[in-house]
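Support request, please re-run this one:
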Amino acid sequence: MVQVVAIGSITVDIVVSDMPADLARGDKQEVGSIDLYPGGGALNATAGFMTQGESVRLLGALGRDGLGERLCAHIEQLGIDVSSVQICPDQPTGKAIVLVEPSGSASVLARRGANACLRIQAQDLQADLIYVAPLALQPMESLAQALAQREKGSTCLAVNPSVACLRQQGQGFKQVYAQADVLGLNAVEAQMLAGVQDADIQLDLSVEQASVLATRLQHHSQQALIITLGVQGAVLAMNDQHYFEPACQVAVCSTVGAGDAFLSSFALAWKRGLEPSHALQFASQAAAARLGQWAANAFPPLFGQGADEVLAL
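Re-run finished. Output below.
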């Protein structure tokens, strides 16, 4: 079994399905559903790891409020190790409003809250696989310091950087980027990391363009650098080779959480010793499974079906 620590945001996701695409300011319309789910990048990745039979220690931050207490109790009941979850007394638990259109396209309004207070220590990084979901600037700086202080070993470090870190590209992020064994980006994020100006960023890249960019962005040739291309699939640059995996064909319910599902699954497959092409295929299938559901992960809603019933399924 792979010892996993998932680092990043823990939020309450308010998921609105069948959101009218033509909603105008001041309108009031009926939607498909409104539910509260456990979410955030670290929790989304945790769900994927647990689906594959791995135990996960979660490293994130919650506010000292009723919502944080309810969320922590909920995810602990699901079997997640919450011993490293931190409580931030002067910030609320993070929240996100996820607006899902009938096409599956999703928009997210987020308030990081306590997640911006996360502090990471070297002892937090004792694991076979460290998965880093998008972090705010200060937690990224503390991660860089913790990595510098840890004992070197065979740990796999997989990083899904936040837009804030890609824009700022501070010293801490650069240090983490250099040490990452696996780095995952979408097409826009890859161009941001490459220094492309906002006005010149393309929403879509061809497979050839992405392959060239992936090689350019590798900090070293052994680094697995992935660029996801939405409905096209994903490219991987690694060990002076390129790989491409087309996206699985699936009816899309929601796009939220697919990125974390893809990268966390690739990192796990890579750590288990799968060949790059097989790891890409494994990741693509995990992302497809996530696209077929409303929420960003497979966990039950906070105020719905009991967790004990879900675990019994």
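The radius of gyration is 19 Å. The first strand starts at residue 4 and ends at 7.
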